[in-house]
Design goal:
364 residues; alpha/beta; Rossmann fold; 2 domains; seven-stranded mixed β-sheet; globular
Length: 364
Amino acid sequence: MRIGVPKERKNQEYRVGLTPAAVEVLTGRSHAVLVESGAGLGAGFPDRAYQAAGATIVATAAAAYGAELVVKVKEPLPEEYGWLRSDLMLFTYLHLAADRPLTEALIHSQTLAIAYETVQLPNRTLPLLNPMSAIAGRLSVQFGAHFLTKQQGGSGVLLGGIPGVRQGRVAILGGGVVGVEAAKIAVGLGARVQILDVHVSRLAELEELFGSRVEFLYSTPAAIAQVVPDADLLIGAVLIPGSRAPKLVSAEVVSAMRPGSVIVDVAVDQGGCVATTQITSHSQPIHVCGGVLHYGVPNIPGAVPQTATQGLVQVTLPYVQAIADGGITALERDPSLALGVNVRDGRICHPAVAQAFPDLPHAS
């Protein structure tokens, strides 16, 4: 099979769909890999490394998209829609429930679109999302602490405090991978940490992990309205696989936060869980609403592309290999991979995406 790896075009997105080591595995199985020139530079992988692994370097994204299977990191941007076609398989993060234009483009082109974020194992874990969620969770506190500094427009609170001065307060909505990794970093900095989740069993598991270092609260609108205004840093870490994130924090609750507080809404790529969140970018990461700094970058792991690329590819490669070896039959052989199919033959296949766009064609 011919596999294309185009350069990512999202703002300051330096990750790449395949590493040279992964290319070597695929070319060793007689697959042809077309890598757009410069695709891996931002992650530390020059063209010559791909050539040494057996890849063909192509000059344009159009040439990379000419392959049968395109492996990316982030969703195609509007400038890439023209390269979508009916005999193309696309394997990447899509987050379609928050992106109607892309959903319509995939339907119109009849591209077979497989989303990393909805590949799901029988135990309900999301193997291709977890490593990026871990990175995003850790970076959410790192960036939050940075923007709390006065020079960045924040309130000037040090999350860890010092003896005689209270530590900063971090509220985390969601006890999944993002929330746990955020809590680890916040606890390590010495902050006072609260995690809110709707699953009592999950809160019990986290209590075993963190003990008394973290306060665990059952998430209700009343609890959120009580906890959020007191937080110096709010982390939105809510995930419903394939669906838009629920709006858990209203504009009224945000307005009750202290000026200079920071919100990092990691759920922004699924629409965000804070009503006042807007999509931002690594080049302009903050927008201010009511004196509160909002960080709404949808590709947070792109800030550490070398680590993130390697972490992503080590989990995606077995699936890429299966698709390259078996084509569409790979979807029939692996139910977990089949759950990744979001659009096929001009119809939405994933129920969460279909629910987001009930007026668009979907499989019965």
